[in-house]
Design brief:
Chains A, B, C: InterPro entries: N-reg_PII-like_a/b, N-reg_PII/ATP_PRibTrfase_C, UPF0166. Chains A, B, C: Belongs to the UPF0166 family. The structure is a homotrimer. The first copy, chain A, is α+β, with helices and mostly antiparallel strands. The first copy, chain A, has one domain: Alpha-Beta Plaits (2-Layer Sandwich). Chain A has two helices and six strands. In chain A, the strands form two sheets. In chain A, strands 2-5-1-6 form a four-stranded antiparallel sheet. In chain A, strands 3-4 form a two-stranded antiparallel ribbon. At the A-B interface, strand 1, strand 2 and strand 6 of A face strand 3 and strand 6 of B.
């Protein structure tokens, strides 16, 4: 296989943020990044220390969501610059990777 | 903890590809990689720009799937060489990591 | 965006391990790591080669679970030192990443 350098990104939301549709629309329609996948966690907690999880009735609608995508390092930097105002600190993780070309 | 160097791999499919069983069988029976986990995304899009997701009736059967595994860098290179013909460009992401020994 | 160096960690369990609650409680209450998310896989296998997956009746309660978290490299090293006795070899993967500050 031959490869292209990319930056992997994982953005941590919860369903209660109501940011998912806006973010997906932006990544798809405006930024046209190479690929995006959304995963729903079954439990989790963030900096607040508040646990989000299924099976705890009053937070059943606040499950963790992860929006994962990758693109060239330059594109990822541009894309994240465009959405940084939407997301608090500690919510956007990135690392270098390679994708088959 | 002591560690061994590995390569992490994430392969992006959709349920509509009908590749999952073949790929899992190959990784398990033939390649015997150290560990494989399959995750189902709740929404996503790839290079085509076509959105895959639950809640959109006619693509309810085409949810994203991610096949994740890791093994030594040498083994991963061999394994990916054996399956590269199955997968289009932009579907196999890898990066260096460490696993507890 | 400005960034902080972190170590990403993924811990591979199965539901049958019955370790999830203990591990989450430890990471949340004792270690207070920056954020934890739990994902349930839909199929998988580990070093034993035994396949875990939905749709196979007698192992329906042994689906793969991944506990993902990140924190500073120093904190992650401490945290993993505290739980290494709980987890067999080949179950804790880590790699360097960056998080928005």
């Amino acid at each position: 296989m031959t490869y292209t350098d990319v930056t992997m990104v994982r953005i941590y939301l919860t369903e209660g943020d109501r940011l998912l549709h806006r973010l997906l629309g932006h990544l798809h329609d405006t930024e046209r990044v190479m690929g995006v996948t959304v995963f729903r966690g079954t439990a989790g907690f963030g900096r607040s220390g508040k646990i989000h999880g299924e099976g705890i009735v009053d937070i059943a609608f606040d499950l963790p969501l992860v929006v994962e995508f990758f693109d060239t390092p330059e594109r990822v930097e541009e894309v994240l610059g465009g959405i940084e105002g939407w997301l608090g600190p500690g919510h956007v993780v990135q690392w270098p990777a390679r994708v088959n070309a």
